[in-house]
Specification:
It contains five helices and 14 strands. With about 350 residues, it is an alpha/beta fold. The protein has two domains: about 150 residues, Spo0b-associated Gtp-binding Protein, Chain: A (Distorted Sandwich); about 180 residues, Rossmann fold. Strand 13, helix 4 and strand 14 form a beta-alpha-beta unit. The longest helix has 13 residues. The C terminus is likely disordered.
Length: about 350
Amino acid sequence: MKSFPDEAEIMVRAGNGGPGCVSFLRTRSQAVGRPDGGTGGNGGDVILETSRTQRTLVDFRRRRLFQAGNGGRGRSQDRHGKSGPPLIIPVPLGTRVFAANGRLLQDLLAPGQRLVVAKGGRGGKGNAHFTSSRLRSPRFAQPGEPGQEHRLRLELQILADVGLVGAPNAGKTSLLKALTASRARVGAFPFTTLTPQLGVLVLAPPEGGDQEREPLILAEIPGLIPDAHLGKGLGDRFLRHLTRTRLLVQVIDVSEVDPARPLAPLQELEKEFQAFDPKLLDKPRLIALNKIDLLAPEFPREQVLQAYAATGRQCLLVSAEAGLGLTALNRAIWEEFSRFSHDDGATSIPE
């Protein structure tokens, strides 16, 4: 299985400060005049900046070392060296930045948010700076200070309004594509999805009333298997992405449900929630019984539906492939969000 591209370790190295200059003013009438060595330029900083276009940390697989520019040397005639250019590294919204010792430095949540992770060294002072009544002709200057160097760990927790979660091959990717404009890859085998996929959900045309609402961001979380919270199948990393979603849609492949134990798939999911972070069970949840188009005529549909309805959560019969029940699911998601106040920490990502 490929490594999950939402964790990365990188080395950041800021630029060194430029050395100061040792120089003396020379004119036609004066061979050696006053000291006029300028100060070196400051080294460039290394800066992390959130970007709407970044979705994962996959780019950090190819590059691990990031180094900003050094400051220029000081020059004669009191001219300062140029400061080194900063290095700005784009990262996804929701990136958590940790120091090498595990300390959380910053949780980058806002678009365009910046964090200086390595400060450039200061430029060394030229000999002109050290002139005094006692020292008229200093013949020395400072070297530039070295830039900071740090090893960092980046961890992504995606920002999404709705998380689609379920076992592998439950049809989450197909459901995401059917509900949104996502181009996520679909495959009829487990672990087709190895990274969270995002899509934009627009309110379904209402029977009457206003449709002026901001779209919601849906995230399909890769399939969870038993003991996912222990890291099996990378499940602990996948579960991490649910912590910031405001609503969970638990997707169940109803065509694989055992009528004798209809709630087993749901109970398995909630067991993983409980083990990873019990707060996940406090989130509002909907249940989508997917693949109803594959049910045999003799399947006890009403019996299974009643079993899920008895959980107290809204349960909908859908088929992503056949396009059944999608409008009802769309409306149910929006009805849940209509209960949320607009100032309780919404996480929609502006497009």
